[in-house]
Design goal:
3-stranded antiparallel sheet, 7-stranded mixed sheet, 15 helices, alpha/beta, 393 residues, Aspartate Aminotransferase, domain 1, single chain, Aspartate Aminotransferase, domain 2, 12 strands
């Protein structure tokens, strides 16, 4: 029987990063020595004490439905995290626990946006932002940045992107894919613009908050401008900080009416997040954070190995990351000098000829760059850089 997919289904694109990761893994399964630098998750195992909390939850029978918005003890742990790390105060009715950070972002967009609304998204961006926005019928408005501006938007760019239809600004710092962190002063300048435009909401995606190492301390829009409290939603999660990507626990904090509406949407999709994962996440947030410091130190060491190797290859422009486990070098000179059509063509060439898998910048809304994940052993980074050097001579 012939049928036609919905317009929403036809308009949506699959996750580029997941597709490339799957392709790299398929080639490895065929026996090819692929070095996969597409991975957007820590390569460490979930810390033992977090797994122990999950096992205890199973043994204690914590396997039933929970409140849609999360168990009270986890919400308390999230509130304590915001007070401890960000000097932000929330009540339980201002917290929603979701099935990963992506669901928190989806719930937020579904709650705030109507068809025809515009959402400002700086590029490079996480691949799912514009696709989630399109699912609501809203329109992504992309602000492209450059490596010269450290992949961060300027106040002038923000002003020029705002229209009468602007409803939401998504700001991700530390950034996936660039690894850049907005400074306190940079955020304050953006906040000054938003203060005079009371109809614009702000979503601060702080998923990589704890993975920072540069001189720039972490700040978000609310930390530098509390006056935006009534229209700022923070999305977060335990996936990256605690190597818990498969546990699927994210959370959101914001004005109570918005959080309640987000919970209503969640109640008609997934309902509550996994009960066992919630208890594990509580242990992650409450217990000693030495495991986080150890992982961040390892990411920093790998970063410090990879950046000089890339800088040594003629034609590659790269700047040090402030955090995350990504770097986003500019390959536009190599693309033009070597006769590649674009970054997609270059990434395909590197996969086939260097057997190194990376993600084209086009996936993140910015052509000419490639995203490298250094969530892998240093030996892999050394080998990958040597292979790039060999094929890009």
């Amino acid at each position: 029987m012939p049928f036609q997919l919905s317009q929403a289904a036809q308009n949506i694109s699959p996750s580029f990063t997941l597709a490339l990761n799957a392709k790299a893994n398929a080639l490895k399964a065929e026996g090819r020595p692929i070095i996969n630098l597409t991975i957007g998750e820590p390569d460490f195992d979930t810390p033992v004490h977090i797994k122990a909390a999950a096992i205890k939850a199973i043994q204690d029978g914590k396997t039933k439905y929970t409140p849609i918005d999360g168990i009270p003890s986890l919400k308390t742990a999230i509130i304590e995290k915001f007070e401890r790390d960000n000097r932000l105060s929330y009540q339980k009715n201002q917290i929603l626990v979701s099935c990963g950070g992506k669901q928190a972002i989806y719930n937020c967009c579904r709650t705030i946006l109507n068809p025809g609304d515009e959402v400002i998204i700086p590029a490079p961006y996480w691949v799912s932002y514009p696709e989630i926005v399109k699912l609501t019928g809203a329109v992504p408005v992309i602000i492209p940045t450059t490596i010269e501006q450290h992949y961060k938007i300027t106040p002038e760019q923000l002003v020029n992107a705002i229209s009468s239809k602007t409803k939401l600004l998504i700001i991700n710092s530390p950034s996936n894919p660039s690894g850049m962190v907005y400074t306190e002063q940079e955020l304050k300048k953006l906040a000054e613009i938003l203060l005079s435009r009371p109809n614009i909401f702000i979503m601060a995606d702080d998923m990589y908050e704890s993975i920072v190492w540069n001189h720039t301390p972490f700040n978000n829009m609310l930390m530098v401008c509390p006056e935006l409290t009534d229209r700022t939603i923070i999305t977060h999660g335990v996936s990256k900080t605690y190597a818990m990507t498969g546990w699927r626990i994210g959370y959101a904090a914001g004005p109570a009416p918005i959080i309640q509406a987000m919970a209503n949407i969640q109640s008609q999709s997934t309902a509550n997040p996994c009960s066992i994962s919630q208890h594990a996440a509580e242990a992650a947030l409450r217990d000693d954070q030495i495991c986080v410091r150890e992982m961040v130190a390892a990411f920093k060491a790998r970063h410090d190995v990879l950046i000089p190797l890339l800088k040594a290859i003629p034609g590659i422009r790269v700047i040090p990351s402030d955090g995350t486990f990504y770097t986003f070098p500019d390959f536009s000179t190599i693309i033009s000098s070597h006769g590649f059509k674009d970054d997609l063509d270059l990434a395909a060439f590197l996969l086939e000829n260097a057997e190194v898998a990376v993600v084209p910048g086009s996936a993140f809304g910015l052509k000419g760059a490639l995203r490298f994940s250094f969530a892998t052993h240093q030996e892999n980074l050394l080998t990958a850089a040597n292979r790039l050097c060999d094929v890009l001579r």
